[in-house]
Amino acid sequence: MPSFQRTAIALAVLFLLLAAPTTGWAENRHHSLEIGASAELTRFDSNSGMQTDTAPSALVAFNFTKRHGMEVAYSSRTVNPDAASFEVDVDILSIGYNYNAYPRERVVPFLRTGMGFRSLRPESDPDPTERLEDSDRNLFIYGGAGFRYFFTESVAMRIDGVLRFVEVDKGFLQPDVEGTLAFGAVFLVGGRDIEPASE
């Protein structure tokens, strides 16, 4: 069974176990640390030569207030380029800003934006395509949206999607455009429930 399927099944079981005893109303909290894991589906730009693929990802975020936070996300996968026999390791690291809308409800929608790096490390091949013949690291900017659904005060389901604009040969004037849809769980650690009046 592929690793992404094992990840998705494990997350589904975790949701069922955590949601069953839920009794209280939950919400996002300021000064809280958010730790998450998800299964994500990525559609790469057609110019990259890489096929659509799934992978596990990890997220760490800090909510400065109930509305404003910063996040760091990382994912890693191995993909097969189109019409090629070799595999390419793709690592994606991003850091950005997170805006939480209506943070006093069980469902917390959010917007996210930021930047990061996409690293490509192909295996050796006697006749690789030009775009993938060497290891490469590309800068990207991203934007997206999603929501968290809280089962308890500390556990939530998170679904989100992002578009990444990857700087390649001609810079950001003609970027590669990638799209990712992610489904996972997040855990809130610490924080307070009362929002400061000065926010």
Overall description:
- The chain is mainly beta and 199 residues long.
- It has one helix at residues 3-19; strands at 30-43, 53-63, 68-79, 88-100, 107-122, 136-150, 155-168, 171-192.
- It has an 8-stranded antiparallel beta barrel with strand order 1-2-3-4-5-6-7-8.
- Residues 16-26 have low confidence and may be disordered.
Task: Describe the structure in brief.
This protein is mainly beta. The chain has one helix at residues 3-19, and strands at 30-43, 53-63, 68-79, 88-100, 107-122, 136-150, 155-168, 171-192. Residues 16-26 have low confidence and may be disordered.
Annotation keywords:
8-stranded antiparallel β-barrel, 1 helix, mainly beta, 199 residues, 59% strand
Task: Give the topology, please.
Blueprint: H1 3-19, E1 30-43, E2 53-63, E3 68-79, E4 88-100, E5 107-122, E6 136-150, E7 155-168, E8 171-192
Antiparallel strand pairs: 1-2, 1-8, 2-3, 3-4, 4-5, 5-6, 6-7, 7-8
Q: How much helix, percentage-wise, in residues?
A: under 10%
Largest sheet: 8 strands, antiparallel, barrel
Low-confidence stretches: 16-26
* Beta-strand percentage range: over 45%
Largest sheet strand order:
1-2-3-4-5-6-7-8
Shape: elongated
Strand-pairing-aware structural class: mainly beta
- Average pLDDT, all residues: 80
Number of helices: 1
